[in-house]
Write a structure and sequence with these properties.
The protein is α+β, with helices and mostly antiparallel strands. The chain has helices at 16-75, 81-97, 101-111, 143-155, and strands at 116-121, 125-126, 132-140, 159-168, 177-185. The chain contains four helices and five strands.
Length: 189
């Protein structure tokens, strides 16, 4: 029978694989540190370029705003006020004339069911964002037909959400249910 006896002061350990693995990890970490330093330096350079571009755009914006203020001041002078009012009036008339009634009625006809009547369309309203709002009155034999028309309007890409403002039941003189509908209209101006 053999008994293993180690008479050395320090027993033998296998540290070489651990040292090689530690050295390899250290090399990988140094390479990653180099990559991160490179990315930070390049990003800092891009930030400098971006700041310069933003500063240039802000300077351009200030110059344009100053020019706009100067031009507005010139237009608001008493001798130019009449020309300004006339140009605003002409611009609003041109904007109203830009709505094609033929296209408007063709688009409504495309979504309107056969059993719904278009009784009245008031002058379309145009807001400051050039969005057109239609105010119209429709009639039908029963309310379900108008509900179908409202669903078709909302599902159409040319019309937006609808707003039903009032309704009136049939009378002796008018055998139709009448509804006043407001809807946004996406005609290009």
């Amino acid at each position: 029978m053999r008994v293993p006896i180690n008479l050395a002061n320090e027993p033998f350990r296998r540290d070489r694989p651990l040292l090689v693995a530690s050295f390899a990890c250290a090399v990988v970490l140094v390479v990653l540190l180099g990559v991160l330093v490179f990315l930070v330096v390049s990003e800092r350079g891009r930030q400098t370029e971006t700041r310069a571009a933003v500063a240039k755009l802000n300077a351009d914006l200030r110059a344009i705003s100053d020019e706009q203020t100067r031009l507005d001041g010139t237009l608001r002078q008493p001798m130019n006020a009449e020309v300004l009012e006339r140009s605003l009036l002409l611009n609003s008339l041109i904007q109203r004339k830009s709505i094609s009634w033929t296209k408007l009625f063709a688009d409504i006809e495309g979504v309107k069911p056969d059993n719904v009547r278009l009784i009245q369309v008031r002058l379309p309203q145009i807001n400051s964002r050039n969005e057109v709002t239609l105010d119209m009155e429709v009639g039908a034999q029963n309310p379900g037909q108008v509900i179908e028309f409202l669903k078709r309007l909302q599902n159409s890409p040319l019309f937006g959400p609808t707003n039903l403002s009032r309704s009136s039941p049939p009378t002796q003189n008018e055998p139709l249910w009448r509804y006043r509908v407001m809807v946004s209209y996406a005609q290009k101006l």
